[in-house]
Structure formats: C-alpha cells, structure tokens
Predict the structure.
Amino acid sequence: MITIDHVSRRFGDGLDAVVALDDVSIEVQRGEIFGVVGQSGAGKSTLLRTVNALERPDSGTVTVDGTVITGLEGAALRQARHKIGMVFQHFNLVGNRTVAQNVEFALEAVGVKGDERRGRALEMLDLVGLAHRAKDRPAQLSGGQRQRVGIARALASQPDVLLSDEATSALDPETTRQILDLIKRLSGELGLTVLLITHEMDVVKRICDSAALMEQGRVVEQGALEQLIRTPGSRVAAELFPVGEAHYTPGHRIIDVTYTGLSADRPVIAQLSRDFGLDVSILGAALETIRGHQAGRTRLAVPGDASVALKVIDRLTSQGVTAWEVHP
Ligand SMILES: Nc1ncnc2c1ncn2[C@@H]1O[C@H](COP(=O)(O)OP(=O)(O)OP(=O)(O)O)[C@@H](O)[C@H]1O
C-alpha cells in the first residue's frame, strides 16, 4: 500500500551535508498501522514528508496505492495528495474559522461545494465525536478536541492513507490514549492505512501493527511488532520491555524470556527451577499491554555453563515462550 523503496535525501553540500534519509526501504501493508520511531534528527519527518511529496528524494521512489508519488507533478500530484490525509503535532487549525469551517477547508480543496460540503464536514465531526462543537472556534477547544478536528479534517477528502506527524506529542497521557484509540478505530472502520512517526514507545505499544526504528537516516530495524518482540537483540523490543542493562554475573548465564498472549499467564520460571533444581534469579522484568494483549519479558540469571543455558532455553521454548541467551 505504501512502498518506500531505497529512498535517500541529503541536505546541504560538502562538510555541512546532512544525510537525512540513507537508503530507506519500508513496506506498509493496506489497513496496517505502522510506526516509525527514532530520536530527534533520525529522519522521521523527512521520511513522512517524502511520502506526501512535500520533500523530493535524491534517489528512490515512494508508491502509494499503486501510484508512484515521487514521479508526479502539478495537478496529478495535487490529486494524489488528496488521497493522503495528514495530522500534525500542533493541529494546524485556522484560528479565525469555526471548527466546521476548518474541516470544510479540506473539502474546498477537492471541489466539494455548498450544502454537500457543510453536510460532509458535520459527518466527519460526528465521526470524531465533535458535531456539537461545530460552531466553536479552535481556541475554545481542549488540545485533544483540537486534534480530533485535525483528524476530521485529514479524513474529509476520504483518503486511503493517513500520515501522522507526532499527533499526540503535545497531549497529556490520557488524551493521548483517547486520540490513539480514535485513530485505531477509524483505521479499522474506514480501512485506512496509517503511517505515523513518534518518539514515544507508548504510541507503538498501543496501536501499531508494525514498527521501524530509525537512526541517523537509516532504518536499523523493522517488522511486525509480534515478530520484533520475539527477536533476540531487537532494540524496539528492548525499549518496549525495559528490563535494564545485562551485567556479567560470575558463574551464571543470562537468559531473556519473552512471553506473549496465553503464555504470559503460565508459571514457566517457577517450573524451570523445580524441574532442573536450579536456583534461578530474576534480574529484571517488564509486563506490558501490547496492542491490547499482555506480553512480558523477564531477565534471568541461571547458574551454570553454556550447556545448562541451552537446556534451559530448550525447555522454555518447548513451553511456548521465546528465550535466548544474552551476552553482556
Ligand atoms: N530543510 C532542511 N534543511 C537542512 N537540513 C534539514 C532539513 N530538514 C531536515 N534536515 C536535517 O535532516 C536531519 C533529519 O531531520 P528530521 O526532521 O527528518 O528528523 P526527525 O527524526 O523528524 O527529528 P525530530 O523528531 O526532531 O523532528 C536532521 O539532521 C535535520 O537537521
């Protein structure tokens, strides 16, 4: 649905040059919510701006729903952009227009006129639970309500794709959860493909099906969340489950155990100690709700050598959890 294929973008020349995107390839499936995470300056905004062609790559292509966006210009580009909605961190609403007029703005751009435009704007506001505030000005709304208007505006032209640029970064945790749940609900109801950028792992944890981690313009990890949290050494998973640093423990092997779904409820570690007569210590543990399901990670120190570690990992694996040795 969104294919970012070997995209590179450099700003400036010579010694001052910054490589904002360095051979980035990402595939976002239709109907999926895909999160791109990374620290400030990693290239997330540049990536998002490349998807709606506000930024042109130096090389590579972006294809949205079969259309090569990076190859379009003029009217064809404007038309393609209407199929891509965008929500912003600071909402970008027009202060001297009413809430309804802000949504109508997006419909004006696609040539919807008069009563139909007003009707559609109200429908969109109804979708985000704000039809009763249609005549208010943005300044009369809370941050969360303003973002709802931003979402209604982004969806007014019936796009297939929603891009979200840190949509919840300016909101408090409870409002963040409500906005994320709204995006998830709308994505399901409207069959929207969502590409979001964020620096908050909570966003990924709550709504993303897949994620990519960016660092200095490169994608250093990507995949379905279920797959990433079971991948030894995954940095996305390490951020999702903060069990701390692994330190060398003399005479012990360190093993990370990751549980998802049903296996999260089983007392596998207690059973391991009983079965093997091992004095297993727990060095760290994190239990999280990931996309509505319980998942957890426990870091164990197991007395013994590599062969004991292998035996323990085998046993844990046969019980349906994922386990691997961590080498500090
Ligand atoms: N128009 C520009 N001109 C020059 N450099 C730019 C431009 N846009 C971005 N950059 C640089 O490209 C790099 C990536 O920036 P980008 O804004 O994409 O990162 P980001 O991950 O979105 O960061 P943040 O979370 O702080 O917005 C940074 O070093 C930035 O300074």
Observations:
- The radius of gyration is 23 Å.
- Residues 242-325 form a domain with the Alpha-Beta Plaits fold (CATH 3.30.70.260).
- The chain has two domains: 2-229, 242-325.
- DSSP finds eleven helices and 14 strands in the chain.
